[in-house]
Amino acid sequence: MERRLTAILAADVVGYSRLMERDEAGTLAQLKEVRCEIVEGKIAEHQGRIVKLTGDGILAEFPSVVSAVACAVGLQRAMQTRTASMPDDRSIQFRVGVNLGDVIVEGDDIYGDGVNVAARLESVAAPGGIAVTQSVRDQVGNRLDLIFEDRGEQQLKNIEKPIRVYHVLLEEPESDAMPPKKQEKPSIAVLPFTNMSGDPEQEYFSDGITEDIITDLSKISGLSVIARNTSFTYKGKAVKAQTVGKELGANFILQGSVRKAGARVRVTGQLVNSNDGTHIWAERFDRDLTDIFAIQDEITRAIVEQLKVKLLPQEKKSIEQAPTDNVEAYTYYLRGRDFLYRYSKRYFELARRMFTKAIELDPNYARAYAGIADCDAFLYMVYQVDVPLGGILDTAAKALALESNLAEAHTARGVALAAARKFDEANAEFERALTLDPNSFEAHFLYARPAFMQGKIARAVELLERAAEINPADFKPPALLIQMYRSLGRDSETKAAARKTVELAERELVLHPEDPRPAIAGALALLELGEKDRAKEWTTRAQAIEEEDPICVYNIACVNGRLGEFDAAFDLLDRVIRSSDRQFWKDWIENDSDLDRLRNHPRYPQLVALLNERFPRT
Asked: Which residues of 541-557 are buried (b: 16+ CB within 10 A; e: fewer)?
């Protein structure tokens, strides 16, 4: 394995999904033109090498840090000139990150922490801007006529230690004085509101209030809001705002409590500056339960005012629009959403009942319809429940007819369309969901499966990595990433995903001992780590919990295949194929690297013939 120290440039297009949605053909043509006329020329001019182009992204390496930064500056200045006369909503802009780091070289590709840091730097750069590490800034020194703006230590996603980040100022300073620090949009984390009702059964209500405030704040373009699943990792923990702010990279922390008693509700909220711990705003609301939506609206408005964020007209209208006038329906909806987030078959079924009850109380409750579609999508895809695909499409269509911008309804439609093998339509629905809610765990996780089925393994990896960022406590994304990393030859990341899967699966088995999935996922992860005996123990445990679920049986076949117990593996795969009418088995079996040891076995052609017989290509 070759390693080397190199200068890495990572770039991607700002708002690519939005541009594609507005004008797909025009955006692709413009991107191709930019790459040919500017990107390739600037990289070659500075003796760089394009490692790979990934959709809207660019990864390049250079023989020196000075060359890499000079290229980044030349690229961004050329883009400024090109787009000066173009409308903002049509023009392509790049974010660029430059890092000096150690990389692993495999053929023409490079991997490792050096690449990861460059990619994370790019994500914190301003549109049209460049972010670099301190080592890059130190190496460049005075060799280039540039000003580096110190943005302090930042906790970049998936990077263990904070990294000091500098922004390269592309404009010439008007005087010898250092320019003022650019104001980026403030970031905020909403921690789970504390349930003060004295009844643990009311926990779903305080959690629901928290999530709805997060949803409202996420609609404001002038704010950066930490995802719900990430914020909820602090649930029940006594933490300091300054600590949370540092860990999540949030400038402000919103904390609060909820006390629900009969027809009355008390909600408190306080906004804290995470840099110095000072309280910016605090309020207590004692109201009738029917005023709960007004309270949420007032909290959101208070935050907007205190942070001096501009609220666009459409954002104001969206926030003011209550999802339902029926508080009892809202209560059932919150209970359903609480069950939905527990991600097991029994809880999906319970959640569906709660959403159905909410619709009985308010037949025009769009989010409750979306909740049902979401439950059915998970039950169909993850648990193999016999849910009519047409029913999922109809329920999602009803939700979208009532509220067209519900990400969860677009996600559910994507699942149903993918299951029907209408992949182009499915991909469009998933992409729409991601545009509407970039922090949706469900959209990323459920999109990754059909992406894998289409053989788009790199795209599936991107989606699962983002899902793992959004919900770091869920074992499923790292479990699926193990074999995908392996397929891409990313060995160190394969091992890391296996270790994370075992850790999270153990925790999940304590919380949900009735669910076989964490046991079998853990077994496959343990095999990746060379712990065969433990893997066999976990497999036996999964079989004891559930012997008939097709996904469980399929994954046990994968375990047997990895252990070299080939006949047992083929017998189980044969059983899965014959007992199911799910088309995706063909695509999954063809792409799953857990089955690679079976492909040269004499029984493998028989398996392929059975797949073709059961699931002929259409």
From this structure: bbeebbeebbbbbbbbb
